[in-house]
Amino acid sequence: MKRKNIISLIVIFMIILSFSGCASESKGNVVTSDVKKEEKLKDDKINSYIEEGSKLLGEKKFDEAKSAFQKAISEDKSNKDTYIKIKDKYMENQRMDDAYQIINLGVKNNVDTENMKKISSDIKSKFEVPIIEQKAYEYGKYSLPSSVKMKINNEEKQVNVVWNNPKVDTTKVKVKKYTGKVQGYDREVQLNLNILPVKTVKKTVYAMGTYIKNNRRYLKTREVEFFRDTDEDIDIAERMAIQDGNYDCLIDGMVEDDYYIRDLNKPMKVYEMAPNADISVCEYMVNSSGSAGQKKINYEKFSKVNNIQDRQILSYIYLKNGVIVKYEQQFVP
């Protein structure tokens, strides 16, 4: 009897467990079904926003389309397919820049970053880099444009540019390449600056002192003319003195030391000196026992010998575009 009771209890217990398992399984099935329904609802919502955005793109309502696509992403920022679908919609409508930005948003949101970066690089490689051809003259002034025209999303736009090297050097005749980044877009632009040669102009001046302003070097000058008797023209100095009515310069019809300086009565003029200007003075200017021969010196030494009060040094300056590229002192006996 006892054994029969024990067997009955075991059977009852197993039946209870069976019912309990069925109940749990049934409950699990309900939860799974609810999750699937929620996922489907979310997917339907995402697809609805994407289709809405696609329709707006076709109507060229780009801001509204962007808003619809943003709503699709906000439903599930980790859904890779959403970014890919939106990218494809933009590419179909020739809006490559928008497609690029959407994929980069996926990278920013840590969505399948390795593959997303590959897609981003692939799109970027298709961007056309506009090349702008410009001209400037040797030692002339030229500023890189702050904005340029280029195609963004297949539309011509005026966009601001930040140049990688905004300082323009026109001291050498060559074609210089400058590159920059377009603000607001990960796009590049290139400018080729063709620096053309200019004629060198020689002037005879009194050098009257130097100074530096805004990291630029300047020389104060006053233009004159210098005549010296030579074997080819043995009395040019005398003729010029007589022409100017300066008979006081003549002794027995000859000028002293065979030279004559004509003052043109022009006002003082300041010229910029190129950073790489060649500078040479008579050797005795830097060495008391030196000769009248030319000696090359740097700007610092030149500034010292030139800035003595009331000193006027007869000189030749060679100008390109109004900038001194070469300086020579003229020996006066």
Automatic annotation (TrEMBL):
Q: Which UniProt keywords apply?
A: Signal, TPR repeat
Please list which residues make up the signal peptide. 1-23
Where do the TPR repeats lie?
46-79
Statement: the UniProt record of this protein carries the keyword Chloroplast = no
Q: What's one Pfam family here?
A: Big_4
Which SUPFAM superfamilies did the record assign? TPR-like
- The UniProt record lists the Bacterial Ig-like domain at 134-185
PROSITE patterns, per the entry: PROKAR_LIPOPROTEIN, TPR
Please give the InterPro entries that the UniProt record associates with this protein: Big_4, TPR-like_helical_dom_sf, TPR_rpt
The answer to whether UniProt assigns keyword Plastid to this entry is no
This chain belongs to which protein, by name? Answer: Bacterial Ig-like domain-containing protein
This protein's species is Clostridium novyi A str. 4570
